[in-house]
Amino acid sequence: MPLSEYIGISEINGPFILVESTPDAFFGELVDVVAPGGKVRRGRVVSISKKATLVQVFGGTDNLIPNETRVRFLNRSLEVSLAPNIVGRAFNGLGEPTDGCGPVFGGHRVNANGMPLNPMARQYPKDFIHTGISAIDTLTTLIRGQKLPIFSGNGLPHNQLAVQIATQARLMTSENFAVVFAGIGIKHDDAEFFMRELSENGRSNNIVTFLNLADDPVIERIATPRMALSAAEYMAYELGMHVLVIITDMTSYCEALRELGVAAGEVPSRKGYPAYLYSDLASLYERAGVVRGVSGSVTQLPILTMPNDDITHPIPDLTGFITEGQIVLSRDLDGKGIYPPIDVLTSLSRLMKDGIGKGFTRDDHPGVASQLFASYSRVQDVRSLAGVVGEDELSKTDKLSLEFGGLFEGKFLRQGTDEDRDIGLSLDMAWDILSTLPKGDLTRLSLDEIKEHIKEPVEANGPVDSKEPKG
Amino acid sequence: MNSKGTRLGRVEMVNGPVINASGMSDFAMREMIHIGEKRLLGEIIRMSGDYATIQVYEDTQGMRVGEEIEGSGEPLSVSLGPGLIGGFFDGIGRPLGALLEKEGMYIAPGIEVPMIDPDKAWEISPSVVAGDMVTAGTLLGTIQETGLVLHRVICPANIEGELTWVVPDGRITSGGIVAKVKVASGKIVDVPLTQRWPVRTPRPYRDRLLPDEPLVTGQRVIDGLFPIAKGGTAAIPGGFGTGKTVTQHQLAKWSEAQIVVYIGCGERGNEMTDVLEQFPVLEDPRSGRPLMERTILVANTSNMPVAAREASIYTGITIAEYFRDMGYDVALMADSTSRWAEALREISGRLEEIPAEEGFPAYLPSRLAEFYERAGRVVTQYGENGSVSIIGAVSPPGGDFTEPVTRHTKRFIRCFWGLDKNLANARHFPAISWLDSYSEYAKEVEEWFCGNVEPKWGELREKARAILLEDEKIQQVIRLVGEDVLPDDQRLLSYTAFLVKNGYLQQAAFGSDSYSPPSKGFAILDLIMYFYDRGMELVKQGVPISLIRESDAVVNLTHLREIPPDDKPSFEDARARLDSHLDRVETERTREQGGEK
Q1: Is residue A360 domain-resident?
Q2: Which of A452, B62, B97, B226 ranks highest by number of CB atoms within 10 Å?
Q3: Residue B66: is its pLDDT beyond 70?
Q4: CATH for B457-596?
């Protein structure tokens, strides 16, 4: 079908333009909006009716003159060009090359919106990804094919952590590993940091980047993660690679969605975000996984900055309901100078239960993890008690608990930005600090496990509660 | 005007999953329609003159103005018959397995696949002969659908008369005819093996019964503290990461129901995959057969079209009612009803309806009520007792239980299992709060537990709850001044609460403790309460609490859950060890006192 082109638009409102009587337009169609000077902007059909078509213009509507603007309907949806040679390339937020190496040749174009994966085609993710970070490997284990976001706040070292994960990530069995990096509304400095760190660590040959910078048009932010995920799916399911997708910052994405929703006059929902924010986020996050009979996989590590560090804000809240857990960074730990400042109690990996323990990591892993959570959770209670009565007034068990908390944060949690700890080492360290606690407190570990890993005889450990005077 | 056969509408406007069409005045409200070349499925939700508003169950990308609309002549309906068990359907009843075979790993819009394969063959044993009079509810025949489920083919509503023909004993296909009935008008009507039923219409039954029999779940905190009855309704609200889905999976695995319908509504694809991979290998603890032989899955994952999410709840409950009508106890898990409510909100927003609270439509409470009221224990038309129990997960934003979906759900359910973020953070699972939760069935089912498990059941339950509640007060004091200043009786109570929490309420979702029959739960709680009673005696005699607590036999009380349920000797051994420890403490005390005198 020849492309149809219309001259003149009847309304301009924010990023939207209205084009009258366009019988051939279809919902979701891509258009070229040609401004009087010949400059071309991309747009997308967001609503059609007999009378008029509403087009969302990427790149904004500044300087458009209604009578002189031409709108060309391209008869295709938002698409991305994919070929094996995209690996190592850099694109902007709309999927256009920015590395000066010219367009992508020899590939095919796919709809960037993707299609829902049939749940029956999925394979339940079970393969442990070694990150070398104790808090993650032991307590919020990352699994191949998982979507595990980092909930952070402005000024916390989430970028450093993402880079450390990306460079240290080892898939026990395969080396066919690639990184897709999607920057949504990120600062030039942050983009620069990622590129430098990843290339210094030898990941540059198998990294694809899609960058929408903070001063790029807001509306393009809607397209950026879709471009990146389409590329990731292609690399995983057609090229057989294990792809780690880092998307930052999802908060910018949601803000863009709200801005457009309001501009389109939609009925807003919580905090002004559109009612479809959940469905929209799901259409991105669900594009992770392992497919039966296919060798590659897509693992997502989205980063979002919680507005005001509020985890109940709609963006982290809805994200947490879709993703398979979350890694939460704590300003408190960061203030204590602990890196990585992972708040393990609010962090969670939903897929961990099936990817750890016997045959995966180590037999004692589930019990140790559960016990660390329980004991560290108690530390919080004791600390608030100590805040009231003072440390001196605490019972002996409570004092041991405080001591355990210090060891947990100072030894187990804290590690260098390039320190790569083996999972066995992390678990041994965990046993070391757990052995400082009374045996009666270790209710999450089986009696056999305690016997095997804590060597001292029970009596030498002292009675369970020894604050009563003896004799 | 068009005649019924050639009704044809035209697309006028497209706005995401909602479209507007003209030429619709001969269509029926709520009728299912096919749109355009791709034949996308939609449902008419509003009519005005020649125009209709339609919600589309599939992705509308690529749709143009002027595309044709064809009616199907029926409202959104599902096929009911043998072949459902072990099946996995999307929100509008399409079998995902067949879609996978036909279209590959992605679900492309516009694929039509029959819900039940009409060529699938079964062995039927008829229960009637030609000449018999039949009416709605008459058993026509039986088919052994799976090792666990005997499928009863029952005469559907609206058919009454004399049988002129009955299928012979032996082979029949799902698309086949079971019997022919001469109805009052003299017409002969075919009774198909697979029938259609509109999902938004509750299936009829004869009578409603009081729910006084528990649905045993194998979860100690539920069976012991907050039991649900067969035919009951329960809600599990909790913020993200509090374990709603794991709890739902646990109930789907271990509930003492004959049929389980699991609806994944707007949730993760991997969770459904998890069920699909686990259930065929997990064994039903009562029959030893694979759990999949009694399970039906309905899934509209979060990335599938939103209108079909709204429908998935109805698809699931209709299937549940169909098996209830055979005289079975059916448990339905809906995870999550919040996603369903949000789908309502999303569609409502597109229709530009005036929103009530937080953008939800004003009819949200009435829709919730309609759904939960489809649960119940009934006398079916077939004459046997059957039940549908509904357990709905609720995902309140920010874990705030005062939001509209949780609040309105609470009005229509009788069992509330509130999940607590702090418990989840400490990895105390199931994170069902013993303070927020309640069950209105507790009294109604107590008699059953006392009669079938242990006569002391009710007494023990009351005692455990009282200790947990009292402990909460003591904990507040401890948080202020520490434990040391408390008198020993309070410290013993607080320690007993610790034992109840760690030894009884906590239950791993995996491994041997995943299913805990009521008898095992009782044994654990009984022993902990025994320790409390004897301990209290000693405290009254002036024995310091540390001496009472300080023993492996007491620490062991938190490890009783590691004992397999049928291992009676280990429980007896634990009691003997506890006794000998307490005896020793008591003797030493007596000797000391003797010495003092």
Answers
A1: no
A2: B226
A3: yes
A4: 1.10.1140.10
**Could A283 and B303 be called an inter-chain contact, meaning their C-beta atoms sit closer than 8 Å?**
yes
- Decide if A55 is inside a domain: yes
Is the CB of B269 less than 8 angstroms away from the CB of A286?
yes
User: In this structure, are residues B178 and B141 in contact, taking their beta carbons and an 8 Å threshold?
Assistant: yes
Cβ atoms A57, A15 nearer than 8 A: yes
DSSP lists the bridge partners of residue A73 as A4, A31
CATH code for the part of the protein at B207-441? 3.40.50.300
Task: Return the sign of the alpha-carbon dihedral for residues B182, B187, B191, B197.
Answer: negative
Q: What is the ipTM of this complex?
A: 0.86
**Contact check, Cβ <8 Å, A385/B100:** no
pLDDT of A366 higher than 60: yes
pLDDT at residue number A470: 37
Tokens of B282: 């997990």
Rg (CA), chain B: 28
Element (H, E) at B18: strand B18-22
Q: Which of B13, B274, B306 sits opposite A124 (nearest CB)?
A: B274
Same domain as A336, residue A241: yes
A259-318 pLDDT, tens digit each: 888 887 787 888 889 888 998 999 999 999 999 999 899 999 999 999 999 999 999 999
Which numeric CATH code is attached to B6-75? 2.40.30.20
- Domain of residue A384, residue span: 365-461
Q: What's the pTM?
A: 0.91
Q: Which residues contact A2 (CB under 8 A, 6 or more apart)?
A: none
Q: What is the reported pLDDT for A339?
A: 94
Question: Does A461 score more than 70 pLDDT?
Answer: no
| Contact state of A320 with B241 under an 8 Å Cβ cutoff | yes
Q: How far apart are CA A177 and CA A171, in angstroms?
A: 8
Q: What is the CATH number of domain B117-193?
A: 2.40.50.100
The reply to whether residue A282 touches residue B302, judged by beta carbons under 8 angstroms, is yes
Q: Are residues A299 and A386 in the same domain?
A: no
pLDDT above 70 coverage of chain A, percent: 95
In this predicted model, what pLDDT tens digit does every residue of B372-430 receive, in sequence order?
999 999 999 999 999 999 999 999 988 899 999 999 999 999 999 999 999 998 889 99
Residue A466 has pLDDT above 70, yes or no: no
CA distance B336 to chain A (A): 10
Sequence spans of domains, chain B: 6-75, 117-193, 207-441, 457-596
d(CA A426, CA A137): 8
- The answer on A278 and A226 residing in a single domain is yes
**Interchain CB distance below 8 Å, B12 and A384:** no
Question: Which residues in chain B have Cβ-Cβ distances shorter than 8 Å to A279?
Answer: 266, 302-303, 306, 346
Residues A375, A441 within the same domain: yes
Q: Which residue from B103, B273, B482 is facing A124, i.e. has the nearest CB? A: B273
Query: Are the beta carbons of A211 and A97 closer than 8 angstroms?
Result: no
State what percent of residues in chain B have pLDDT above 70.
Answer: 98
